[in-house]
Write a structure and sequence with these properties.
By secondary structure, this protein is an alpha/beta fold. The chain folds into 3 domains: about 35 residues; about 375 residues, TIM Barrel, CATH 3.20.20; about 100 residues, Sandwich (Immunoglobulin-like). It is about 30% helix and about 15% strand. An 8-stranded parallel β-sheet has the order 11-10-9-5-2-1-13-12. It has a 6-stranded antiparallel β-sheet with strand order 14-15-16-21-18-19. A hairpin with a 4-residue loop joins strand 7 and strand 8. It is globular. The two termini are about 55 Å apart. Bound molecules: 1-deoxynojirimycin (NOJ) and magnesium ion. The site of 1-deoxynojirimycin has 9 residues, from loops. This is Glycosyl hydrolase family 13 catalytic domain-containing protein.
């Protein structure tokens, strides 16, 4: 009876109804806020990076096959050499390798002058060797990205041979012009003043066809006429050939050069006499809008292979220097990723931490969740001085730490993981045509041989690269600077740090777009926080450009915590501090020039 009584009396009167009304409204408001306003609360699940396509989850390791590992004693690296070194590549933790060209080529530009797109050059091995490499990489879950050079072929390509002879099928495969009479001379001059990237006129008179042909690079690299539908078909066929072999993507060479102005009787303004100036606009020979249509067609072609060979989405990455953000975004929209060369082109050894931050912010502007454009960073390649030489050996580890902890896909050039430096070659020893286009005094500013010296595997003869005579001699510092010694060393090394970082960056905190730069009072210090929803938070800090004096920074406010645990340190700091995996006060992080630390923030 008493219970009934209670029930009847439960919530009688206006006060109680008003109370219930208020509670219900409060509940509705809370649900609405949680659902629509605060994304963080709404997403109850942790950020999960495993759904990202493979190329967003990995580091790309560039191999210049000629200089990686020779197995047949001819002094030139080969495909079997790459296969032989797969355990090493796997030990780095990288999930993809990009191979510079290994196709049939007279090697005037060391493979970037292709005479047959679907053949392996005998110097690098055979198609069987390539297939074996593919099988072995597959076992190790390493993807293979191959180079593709659509702008030009070798002058020894059958297409060019036939084109010179005016064969009906091939006559329009290249860019030919009878030229123009300028100074009342008998012989025609080239149709315009365009310069080759390697220096000198971009036009070469051909005695057989009695016309000029255009070459953005070497005379032995005639530019294809990519407006020709037949040429487009040939390029598609070549891409299809390699897709069918199971490659995971393409690095597209010199893409911005692929089309030229339709009217070739226009001069470019402001050009020099001989030397090509990369900083000029070149609006008649680069960045023509036709590029995007072709890119889209290659994306479509590659997407047709999504479900084949267990690869998934193919990675199409384009090499074009000096792009504006607007053009960069057009590459993205067309289904490719344009290489971001800011860490090569903008970073120099006068740039301190704050200056690097500016470069990074500028690089990342417009990328991320709003655009869905995935960032990428490149620290070195076969065309530019090595990072350890460009920025100094003492900056190497901090630079690798930065490369591997930034958002997006990093590309690492072979040998940079151990801090290989540029080798020096006399003019007489020089092999690179870009260097040889200049004289004994000028070649040094142009030759790319120094960054192409053979991989330094160990301290045995020729650094373990070859039993024969290497095509470029090994850098003599291999005796102390080599992969084996860094791998086996009991005290921390560049290579060991590299491996730790590659491993660390696989976790969700790093494998996303999120980065918050930290305002530091010390101009030397570059610092940022990497985080993912529901994931541990990391402070990454480096002293860039500072001297040997320790600089102390307080990260406790920006990290919103006073303690952290050191995850990775640059080797010298690791040796000196002994703090690895230990707790650390975020209010007092000490870094000398070239030091860097990745710290997990503890709650
Ligand atoms: C860019 C390549 O990376 C470089 O090595 C080559 O010389 C030019 N393109 C021409 O193919
Ligand atoms: Mg060989």
């Amino acid at each position: 009876m008493a219970d009934d009584e209670k029930k009847r009396h439960f919530c009688e009167g206006n006060k109680c109804l008003a109370f219930i009304f208020v509670v219900v409204i409060a509940a509705i408001v809370t649900v609405a806020v949680v659902t629509f306003v605060d994304k963080e609360i709404r997403t109850v699940h942790k950020y999960d990076n495993s759904k990202l396509p493979w190329w967003k989850q990995t580091v790309v390791y560039q191999i210049y096959p000629r200089s990686f590992q020779d197995t047949d004693g001819d002094g030139i690296g080969d495909l079997n050499g790459i296969t032989k070194r797969l355990d090493y590549i796997q030990s780095l933790g990288v999930g993809a390798i990009w191979l510079s060209p290994f196709y049939s080529s007279p090697q005037r530009d060391f493979g970037y002058d292709i005479s047959n797109y679907t053949e392996v050059d005998r110097r690098f091995g055979t198609m069987k060797d390539f297939e074996r490499l593919m099988n072995e990489t597959r076992k190790r879950n390493i993807k293979v990205i191959v180079d593709f050079v659509p702008n030009h072929t070798s002058n020894e390509s059958m297409w060019f041979y036939e084109s010179r002879r005016y064969n009906d099928t091939y006559k329009d495969y290249y860019i030919w012009s009878p030229g123009i009479k300028r100074n009342g001379t008998n012989k025609n001059d080239p149709p315009n003043n365009w310069l080759s990237v390697f220096g000198g006129s971009a036009w070469k008179y051909d005695e057989i066809r009695r016309e000029y042909y255009y070459h953005a690079f070497l005379e032995s690299q005639p530019d294809l006429n990519v407006t020709n539908k037949e040429v487009q078909k040939e390029l598609q066929n070549a891409l299809t050939f390699w897709l069918e072999k199971g490659v995971a993507g393409f690095r597209l060479d010199a893409l911005k050069f692929m089309f030229e102005a339709e009217d070739i009787f226009q001069d470019e303004v402001g050009l020099g006499e001989y030397e090509y100036d990369e900083s000029q606009e070149h609006n008649l020979t680069t960045n023509m809008p036709e590029i995007y249509g072709i890119l889209r067609s290659w994306r479509k072609l590659s997407d047709g292979f999504k479900d084949k060979h267990g690869v998934g989405e193919r990675f199409i990455v384009a090499e074009s220097y000096g792009l504006t953000h607007a053009i960069r975004d057009d590459y993205y929209r067309a289904g490719s990723v344009p290489f971001n060369f800011d860490l090569i082109m903008k970073l120099n050894n006068t740039c301190n931490g704050h200056c690097v931050r500016k470069i990074l912010e500028e690089s990342l502007a417009g990328l991320g969740p709003s655009s869905e454009f995935w960032p990428n960073f490149v620290m070195g390649n076969h065309d530019r001085s090595r990072v350890a030489s460009r920025l100094g050996a003492d900056m190497l580890d901090a630079m690798n730490m930065m490369l591997l902890t930034l958002p997006g896909t990093p590309t690492c050039y072979y040998g940079d993981e151990i801090g290989m430096t540029d080798a020096s070659y006399t003019f007489e020893e020089t092999k690179d045509p870009q260097g040889l286009h200049f004289n004994k005094t000028g070649y040094m500013n142009h030759t790319r041989d120094p960054e192409r010296s053979p991989m330094q595997w160990n301290d045995s003869r020729n650094a373990g690269f070859s039993n024969g005579t290497p095509w470029l001699h090994v850098n003599p510092n291999y005796v102390t600077l080599n992969a084996r010694s860094q791998s086996e060393s009991n005290s921390p090394t560049s290579l060991q740090m590299f491996r730790e970082l590659v491993k660390l960056r696989k976790i969700a905190s790093f494998n996303n777009y999120n980065i918050t730069f930290i305002d530091t009072a010390q101009p030397e210090v570059l610092a940022y926080i990497r985080f993912g929803l529901g994931q541990p938070k990391y402070v990454v800090a480096m002293n860039i450009g500072g001297d040997n004096n320790e600089v102390i920074t307080d990260f406790s406010k920006s990290a919103n915590s006073i303690v952290g645990r050191v995850s990775v340190m640059t080797p010298r700091l690791s040796k000196a501090s002994g703090l690895k995996n230990k707790g650390i006060k975020l209010s007092q992080i000490g870094l000398r020039g070239g030091d860097g630390m990745v710290i997990e923030v503890l709650p």
